[in-house]
Design a protein that fits this description.
By secondary structure, the chain is an alpha+beta fold. The protein has two domains: 96 residues, no CATH class; 49 residues. Helices cover 41% and strands 30% of the residues. The strands form two sheets. The protein has a six-stranded antiparallel β-sheet with strand order 6-5-4-3-7-8, with no helix packed on it. The protein has a three-stranded antiparallel β-sheet with strand order 2-1-9, with no helix packed on it. Strand 4 and strand 5 form a beta hairpin. The longest helix has 25 residues.
């Protein structure tokens, strides 16, 4: 009976550490506070530092207070000026104008070419305009999220 009680307590202590321990995450809090993105240990993060204009990327190894630890270097969260768009921060409406304009413009041109077997001037104008809207959207929609104002980057414990 004592052995069974010892085994039960031992297993409870071992599994309780993982079940009841706090998890530390990096949270990107957007302006309207409805779109929060969480990065955990093992996630890939690409960012730009305030004093450096180059892109820095790395896999998150650990979090310490307000420091993100990567393989070979550490970064203070307050020094990050912007995050590059990744799969977690790519929101549907933000990129669909660009993608749909290319697809619809090219598809319309291709379908009209297959249907009539010749290039029509009106079709070229419409499909060219749609592709142009896609190019303008690509130029205007940036690939970074600036960390300033109400957009914040924080290390939190859950």
């Amino acid at each position: 009976m004592k052995l069974l009680l010892f085994v039960f307590v031992f297993l409870l202590v071992i599994t309780g550490h993982h079940c009841f321990g706090q998890q530390t995450l990096l949270m990107l809090q957007k302006r309207n506070k409805n779109k929060n993105v969480y990065y955990k240990i093992g996630d890939e993060l690409s960012f730009r530092l305030a004093d450096n204009k180059s892109k820095v990327s790395g896999e998150i190894i650990a979090f310490q207070d307000s420091v993100i630890v990567f393989k070979g270097f550490e970064v203070i969260v307050s020094k990050i000026s912007s995050l590059y768009i990744d799969e977690k921060t790519r929101w549907w409406l933000r990129y669909k104008v660009e993608q749909l304009s290319f697809i619809v413009g090219g598809g319309y041109l291709l379908l009209d070419l297959i249907n009539t077997c010749e290039l029509n001037k009106d079709t070229l104008v419409v499909s060219g305009s749609l592709i142009g809207v896609g190019l303008v959207a690509r130029a205007l929609i940036g690939n970074r999220i600036k960390i300033k104002g109400r957009t914040k980057l924080r290390v939190i414990e859950i």
